[in-house]
Design a protein that fits this description.
Structural class: alpha/beta
Family: Belongs to the aspartate/ornithine carbamoyltransferase superfamily. ATCase family.
Radius of gyration: 19 Å
InterPro entries: Asp/Orn_carbamoyltranf_P-bd, Asp/Orn_carbamoylTrfase, Asp/Orn_carbamoylTrfase_sf, Asp_carbamoyltransf, Asp_carbamoyltransf_Asp/Orn-bd
CATH class of the largest domain: Alpha Beta
Bound molecules: phosphoric acid mono(formamide)ester
Keywords: Pyrimidine biosynthesis, Transferase
Number of helices: 10
Order of helices and strands: HEHEHEHEHEHEEHEHHEH
Pathway: Pyrimidine metabolism; UMP biosynthesis via de novo pathway; (S)-dihydroorotate from bicarbonate: step 2/3
Function: Catalyzes the condensation of carbamoyl phosphate and aspartate to form carbamoyl aspartate and inorganic phosphate, the committed step in the de novo pyrimidine nucleotide biosynthesis pathway.
CATH topology of the largest domain: Rossmann fold
CATH superfamily of the largest domain: Aspartate/ornithine carbamoyltransferase
Shape: globular
Distance between the termini: 21 Å
Largest sheet: 5 strands, parallel
Strand order of the largest sheet: 7-6-5-8-9
CATH architecture of the largest domain: 3-Layer(aba) Sandwich
């Protein structure tokens, strides 16, 4: 985060470019749709003067059945320096790491983890509030399918924050407390003590069965609305990793009020990802 802070200013310049990673090649290996993560990694790499190659599953040999292992070995043969991987299967970054000499960054692997999202979330909170230790965050929604929830519980706890996950029982994974989070089924109760309300999208694309009776019922008990927000602290932060479904996890106009950091999180993502690329790609290759 300290390194990221020094990159914020670059994004505000007329010429947003540093020569730091000239001659390095980064492949964005995306097997799942993405707007924020893919574009911000691409911008981060370009602002550091790296060469960026965007891979999409549908336009590659993966569409003809090539395995992740063989695709990685093919990229490795091209002597690339880093792979940014997003994949629907948990653990896929480890398969990539075993088959290339390049540095590997997890940009989201199934329901497992999304570590760079957590770093940009922490960066945004610190920028807004000035500190992290002792803050109380509630993470609300589809915890079961959320890689952001898993990474954020670990990251927030590591920085000394308290974390509570709030969801219907069917959307809370077993043993989530082992990650260090408290659990609650009651959003109306949980909002009053929170410094941060972190909302999650219902991941219907990963839900193989019905986890809730209806979206209407979910909105009634777990959607953030103005009535609930009145119970919260005046300066509470409203966060969301995006993409959001306005009118479901968040009443539409609450996404645009001053307490919402949703757009700011996107901006933080570029500086944080520049820092990540800089830290893993600059310096001695043998380290
Ligand atoms: N937050 C996030 O990962 O968004 P994208 O799916 O658009 O990358």
């Amino acid at each position: 985060m300290t390194t990221a802070k020094s990159f914020v200013e670059v994004g505000e310049r007329e010429i947003k470019k540093l020569p730091t990673l000239r001659g390095k090649t980064i492949v964005n290996l995306f097997y799942e749709p993405s707007t924020r993560t893919r574009i911000s990694f691409e911008l981060a790499g370009k602002r550091l003067s790296a060469d960026i190659i965007n891979f999409s599953e549908k336009a590659s040999a993966a569409a003809k059945g090539e395995s992740l292992k063989d695709t990685t070995r093919t990229l490795n043969a091209m002597n690339i320096n880093a792979v940014v991987i997003r994949h629907p299967y948990p653990g896929s970054p480890y398969i990539v790491a075993r088959n290339t000499r390049a540095r590997v960054i997890n940009a989201g692997d199934g329901c497992h983890e999304h570590p760079t999202q957590s770093l940009l979330d922490l960066f945004t909170i610190k920028k807004r509030l000035g500190y992290l230790k002792g803050l109380k965050a509630i993470i609300v929604g589809d915890i079961f399918h959320s890689r952001v929830a898993r990474s954020n519980i670990l990251a927030f706890k590591k920085m000394g924050m308290e974390v509570k996950v709030v969801a219907p029982p069917t959307l809370l994974p077993a043993q989530v407390e082992e990650l260090g989070a408290e659990c609650s089924y009651n959003l109306a109760e949980a909002v009053s003590e929170a410094d941060i309300i972190y909302l999650l999208r219902m991941q219907t694309e990963r839900q193989a069965r019905a986890f809730i009776p209806s979206i209407r019922e979910y909105v009634r008990y777990y959607g953030l609305n103005r009535t609930l927000l009145k119970k919260a602290k005046e300066d509470v932060l409203i966060m969301h990793p995006g993409p959001m479904t306005r009118g479901v996890e968040i009443e539409s106009d609450l996404a645009d009020i001053p307490q919402s950091t949703i757009v700011e999180q996107v901006t933080s993502g570029i500086a944080v990802r520049m820092a990540i690329l800089y830290l893993i790609l600059s310096g001695d290759e043998s380290e």
